[in-house]
Amino acid sequence: MNSYLRLSSTKTGIGVVTSAPIKKGRRIDAWEPGDMVYVDLESITDMDYLKWLNVFGIVVWKGFYAPQNPMRMSLAWYINHSTRPNLAIRVTPSTWTIRAKRDIKAGEQLTVDYGTLDFRVNGRRR
């Protein structure tokens, strides 16, 4: 995990901020392996869990990507949306690859355009 990343108060609530500059193209490890699971919509029987997934999960066709443990979420779950993001994220069922789209200054919030996330389940795009 990168020690220069931290949660911080932002304009939109809580987000991830860097305390050190990040060069364009650099991989950013804000994800703890195994923190993301795919939850099939048809398997959900608990309405409270479904409500939680609607807030914290990433909606994909017929399901969600969600933190494996709601009490311990990697920093990547706190990266906020922007229409002018400084990160690109590629998502598969087991990994997030996060890279800086441009040079990022110390103190800057890390953001991604949620509409550009590339979701794949079992090798198929969702």
Report a brief summary of the structure.
The chain is mainly beta and 126 residues long. The protein has a single domain, classed as Beta-clip-like (Beta Complex), CATH 2.170.270.10. The protein contains one helix and eleven strands; from the N terminus they run βββαββββββββ.
Q: Which regions have little confidence, pLDDT < 50, spanning 5+ residues? A: none
Strand tally: 11
What about the largest sheet?
A: 3 strands, antiparallel
**Domain count:** 1
Give the strand line-up of the largest sheet.
3-5-4
Radius of gyration: 15 Å
Structural class: mainly beta
Helix tally equals 1
CATH class, please? Mainly Beta
| Distance linking N and C termini | 28 Å
Relative helix content: under 10%
Secondary-structure element order, as H and E? EEEHEEEEEEEE
Main attributes of the structure:
126 residues, mainly beta, Beta-clip-like, three-stranded antiparallel sheet, two-stranded antiparallel sheet, elongated
Describe the structure.
By secondary structure, this protein is mainly beta. It has one domain (5-125): SET domain (Beta-clip-like, Beta Complex). Helices cover 8% and strands 34% of the residues. The chain contains one helix and eleven strands, in the order βββαββββββββ. It has one helix at residues 47-56; strands at 5-10, 13-18, 36-40, 58-60, 63-67, 80-81, 87-91, 96-100, 111-112, 120-121, 124-125. It has a three-stranded antiparallel sheet, with helices on one face. Strands 1-2 form a two-stranded antiparallel sheet. The longest helix is centred in the middle third of the chain and has 10 residues, at 47-56. It is elongated and about 45 Å long.
